[in-house]
Design a protein that fits this description.
Low-confidence stretches: none
Strand content: 15-25%
Largest sheet: 5 strands, parallel
Distance between the termini: 39 Å
Strand order of the largest sheet: 3-2-1-4-5
Radius of gyration: 15 Å
CATH class: Alpha Beta
Bound molecules: adenosine-5'-diphosphate
CATH superfamily: HUPs
Structural class: alpha/beta
Shape: globular
Order of helices and strands: EHEHEHEHEH
CATH architecture: 3-Layer(aba) Sandwich
Number of strands: 5
Length: 155
């Protein structure tokens, strides 16, 4: 059976930290579905269509990496996609506390899905979408925090 992992997030925007997690996890899984959740309660800064397009551009050479959006519970989306694994990145101890609660809640709902955590590379620990958004909002150069294939100014 194929090992399929869902990597859920807001990806607002998708950063080099996210890109690195997907590349490293690709060695563990046959397929990865990068899944943009649309009901987090937070209004997104970048439109969903742009986020999808940018992430597809990053992984355009790997047909085993898919980009989708979903509404509702992440575990329900995993079951629908027949994905047995949920992938999340960990940067800090506070990430861990937050992720532990979600992972244990998800497990209580659906024990057939294993949550897999990958530690971020040290050089990506400080990168988060909120800060990258602030740099962009105030006209700074965010290119070093974004995958090379993402060009924010291109339509
Ligand atoms: P969410 O809104 O669900 O936290 P994000 O888009 O912020 O979604 O993050 C998606 C996943 O990527 C989370 O597991 C998060 O911990 C991880 N992540 C975010 N930034 C980094 C980074 N710089 N390095 C590694 N993992 C990261």
């Amino acid at each position: 059976m194929k090992r399929v992992a869902v990597f859920p997030g807001s990806f607002d925007p998708f950063t080099v930290g996210h890109e690195s997690i997907v590349h490293r996890a690709r060695k563990l899984f046959d397929e990865i579905i990068i899944a943009i959740g649309t009901n987090t309660g937070k209004e997104a800064y970048f439109p969903l269509e742009k986020r999808i397009k940018w992430i597809r551009a990053v992984f355009k050479d790997d047909p085993a990496i898919h980009v989708m959006s979903y509404e509702g519970l992440t575990v329900d989306f995993c079951m629908k996609q027949k994905a047995g694994f949920l992938l999340r990145g960990l940067r800090t101890a506070s990430d861990f506390e937050y992720e532990r609660a979600i992972a244990q809640l998800n497990r209580a709902m659906e024990k057939n899905i294993e949550v897999v955590f990958m530690l971020t590379l040290p050089e990506h620990t400080f990168i988060n979408s909120t800060l990258v958004r602030e740099v962009i909002r105030y006209g700074g150069d965010a290119s070093k925090f974004l995958p090379a294939a993402i060009n924010l100014t291109e339509n």
